[in-house]
Amino acid sequence: MDTPRTKVTAIAGDGIGPEVMRATQRILEAGGARIEWENAIAGGEAFRKGIATGCPQETLDSIASTGLALKSPLETPVGFGEKSANVTLRKFFELYGNIRPVRELPGIRTPFSGRHIDMVIVRENVEDLYAGIEYEQTAGVAECLKLMSDPGCERILRLAYALARAEGRSKLACSTKANIMKMSEGTMKRVFERISGDYPGITPSHVIIDNCAHQLVIAPEQFDVVVTSNMNGDIISDLAAGLVGGLGIAPSSNLGDQAAMFEAVHGSAPQIAGKGLANPTALLLAAVMLLRHIGDFAAAGRIEQAVFVTLEEGRNLTGDIAAPGAGTGTDAYTDQVIANLGRISSMPSRDYQPVVMPHWADEVWHQAPAARELVGVDLFLESGEAPEALAASLQQSLSGSAFTLKMLSNRGTQVWPPAGGHSFLIDHFQARLLLPAPTPGDADGEIAELLGRLAGSHRWMHLEKLQRFDGRDAYAKAQGEG
Amino acid sequence: MDTPRTKVTAIAGDGIGPEVMRATQRILEAGGARIEWENAIAGGEAFRKGIATGCPQETLDSIASTGLALKSPLETPVGFGEKSANVTLRKFFELYGNIRPVRELPGIRTPFSGRHIDMVIVRENVEDLYAGIEYEQTAGVAECLKLMSDPGCERILRLAYALARAEGRSKLACSTKANIMKMSEGTMKRVFERISGDYPGITPSHVIIDNCAHQLVIAPEQFDVVVTSNMNGDIISDLAAGLVGGLGIAPSSNLGDQAAMFEAVHGSAPQIAGKGLANPTALLLAAVMLLRHIGDFAAAGRIEQAVFVTLEEGRNLTGDIAAPGAGTGTDAYTDQVIANLGRISSMPSRDYQPVVMPHWADEVWHQAPAARELVGVDLFLESGEAPEALAASLQQSLSGSAFTLKMLSNRGTQVWPPAGGHSFLIDHFQARLLLPAPTPGDADGEIAELLGRLAGSHRWMHLEKLQRFDGRDAYAKAQGEG
Question: Got the DSSP string for A196-230?
Fold first, then answer.
């Protein structure tokens, strides 16, 4: 009696996508994986049909129903859409965990060959600068909000720990820029310190992100699992892929509470599309990750070993990884991998267990502080005036209001009262306005009155409350602020 | 008759700082550099004297007067100060250009040896996330403002072009994340495209930052000059240093309109301080950059060649770069470099010309659009309610106001009206409130009225105006927003 098949949504994608998808599906079938494919479209084909997100509803419905997707590279054709179909899929299914295995492969020569690089980069995938909240605040000064949340960090950190456990790994390095961004990047470091005690047997460490990038080049073999925030992870995951042969053979998964999507990291390579030259290894290794995700460790190991044997022996490799002049095509490589099914390479597959995903309640995360106070507001102003003149006119407008001007900063450096030093100034000032004393209330009436009295005299574009939570200042001081 | 000496402020710094400074000063003197040192303190010694910035006024005055500093590593002792003395110095003198040469050195073996890596990373040094403007907006959700300005980008880009010219380099790659952060990182890309025509003979290219990190590992020899924003540059400059031997031998300069500071990239290495073991190469190569900055190309070349000869021959190297067991001390290495003055290595010094720094008027940069409109506001709310309930209560409060609720987003993804999909929600919502039509005015009265009517019913912490400049939207759409 056959094992029942698991339904997986297959997105053949653009460029070389259909070719590498066909090759992968052939190898999975030959390797004994019990998959039933639901074909769906996304990317170029969808954009050209007029679907602004690049993802038809039927595709979203299919993934919602299967909970699993294998996805080839997608294009965002020039002139279509503000957001890519890839981002749409990640956001729609809240795929918060991007998993990027980085392992030295047999037969793939790099400057680091022989050092046994074998790590996983875990990248937070939905918050941070990628929330995409941007404003052009003056005509020439743009702002992007970097948002990092306690639960957003906890989810990715617990996923990284769960993954380390499932793969039998003993070290987890959390990499942040908490030394400079003490609140935002600091959130990830603080949550890491808070929860690490829950995972005995896995040694935690913290490494500043620039040092992490440096260490990845100097001594990459020291890393086991690295977890980091979205923008940092974007950079170091591609860096790390380069250490073991590049994006062309790098698989990834994107994990969420309700779906998981597996994909190659490389692009759609339109210049070789349809020529039968594409290397399907990255998508195939992503499919191996999928098999482990659904618990089919036997098929996963069999296929992975067949790939390793093929790379090790170097017969019938595609042109991108073959010896010069010895490259063959997608079909020959696929046939070779299938022929090698059942063989064992010199590099063992790791011993994998199922990943136990952290569980989160399906409700709005909210944590009210026990005590709140309002200290004042930061008002961001557009002005071409020098700081002294701007301060004087602001003070005049504030006369009789609830607020007094504490300082002006320009791109984070205090420029009034003058702190000395040279600052090249732009037309974007932060005015820190304080109430006479911290108040337990919201002071919304006072703020409304403030805005009313500034109308016509000062042009502002952004207002932030200066809060205190449980007695701690919930805002940073400017450079030079006393 | 002696050439007059150039005054340079020398900050001996912490840990191994005084040792590497003495070694560097001895070699410069022996190499014929005509420098008069003004000794000044900063870092640990200053913090312990109670100077909260880590920089005494006399030190700032000395640099302001000489316009030149050579600086050893500084410490921020635990428990002292919110900001490091390094950051204070960079901000005080507006040292907006961080220059990081990355060149394969003779005798320093790395996985990339023989590939002739020879590039310069130019990092913007004062704006971006390093403005340090942060808020904890709810008790668990932190925001850092990423600010990028047209003139801030133009300054660093023109400096990178000037540097490329001065060093006879033919390619400049600008690296951004403009594909995701179209406004902030996009500013740098747009300015790059606008000004590149002013520099015939230098080939411009744009590379996405994650691909840049990947290419730096895959094919670093392709790069000549790379210019990028502050956070990106922090990461890739340390990555690139790792390609040629690490931070221990990496020099840097920090350039501004009124001062230039030269330093080693490495830290103060307290564990070996005072033992005579420190390697002064990084600070010495920074001093060579200083000599070129002041036009003493002869002494710079002489000293650089003596360093290259010493590394090439491998005699009397410090323990960090010597063959195992063959390491010597700071003094022996210093004597060896001095003994090699006048000799020529197998690796020629590049031909340098003076860097012609871009000139900027000393006034507030301001560029008013020809036409302005206000579309509405984004109000950021703290709420534990589900989106439907929050939208309903907001709509009730807005009834009769100038504004209507267009959408709610949570970390950048639209959650009301529901766009389908799964979103893990946090207590931090963006409410997009629109006026009936874009208005040429500021609508400050309407906004004040809005805040008054929300007082007591909705807790908000952040307000942004939705502006239009010259007919273009000056704000990004949320993921899923129509």
Answer: GGG-TTSEEEEEEHHHHHHHHHH-GGG-SEEEE-H
Cβ neighbours of B186 in A, within 8 Å: 142
Mean pLDDT confidence for B417-442: 92
Q: Which residues of chain A have pLDDT under 70?
A: 1, 79-82
Which residues of chain A does B211 touch, with a Cβ-Cβ cutoff of 8 Å?
238
Q: pLDDT tens digits, residue range B126-179?
A: 999 998 899 999 999 999 999 999 999 999 999 999 999 999 999 999 999 999
Cβ neighbours, 10 Å, residue B103: 17
A364:B92 CB<8 A = no
Task: Using the Cα atoms of residue A333, residue A336, residue A341 and residue A342 in order, give the sign of their dihedral.
Answer: negative
Q: What are phi and psi of B204, to 5 degrees?
A: -85, 150
Ordered DSSP codes for A154-193: HHHHHHHHHHHHHTT--EEEEEE-TTTSTTHHHHHHHHHH
- For Cα atoms A291, A231, B98, give the angle at the middle one, nearest 5 degrees: 145
Over residues B98-134, the pLDDT tens digits come to 999 999 999 999 999 999 999 999 999 999 999 889 9
Q: Which residues in chain B are contacts of A143 at CB distance < 8 A?
A: 145-147, 183-184
- Beta strand A260-264 pairing with B260-264: unpaired
Cα–Cα dist B237/A211, whole Å = 10
Q: B383 with B459: CB under 8 angstroms?
A: yes
CB contact under 8 A, A182 and B444: no
CA–CA dist B82, B61 (Å, integer): 22
Please give the residue of chain A at the shortest CA–CA distance from B258. Answer: A422
CA-closest candidate to residue A130, choices A145, A141, A112: A145
Q: Check: CB of residue A126 under 8 Å from CB of residue A193.
A: no
- Amino acid, res. A229: S
B295: left (phi over 0), alpha (psi -120 to 50) or beta: left
CB contact (8 A) between residue A364 and residue B425: yes
In degrees and rounded to multiples of 5, residue B44 shows phi and psi of -50, -50
B100, B266 in Cβ contact below 8 A?
Answer: no
Q: In Å, how far are A158, A450, B137, B148 from A439, measured between CA atoms?
A: 37, 16, 17, 34
ipTM comes to 0.96
Q: Structure tokens of B19?
A: 């040792």
Its pTM surpasses 0.80: yes
According to DSSP, the residues that pair with B124 across neighbouring strands are: B97
- Residue A331 designated active-site: no
- Which of A93, A123, A147, A481 to mutate to test binding with chain B, by most B CBs within 10 Å of its CB? A147
Helix, strand, coil distribution of chain B in percent, nearest 5 = 35, 25, 40
- Within 10 angstroms of residue B30's Cβ, the number of other Cβ atoms is 17
Tell me which of A218, A228, A254 to substitute to probe the interface with B (most B C-beta atoms closer than 10 Å): A218
In percent, how much of chain A has pLDDT > 90? 88
pLDDT for res B347? 95
Please state whether beta strands B171-176 and A251-255 pair in parallel, antiparallel, or not at all (unpaired). Answer: unpaired
A470 part of the active site: no
- Please calculate the CA angle B426-A166-A288 and round it to the nearest 5 degrees: 95
B378 annotated active-site: no
Alpha carbon distance A52, A11 (integer Å): 17
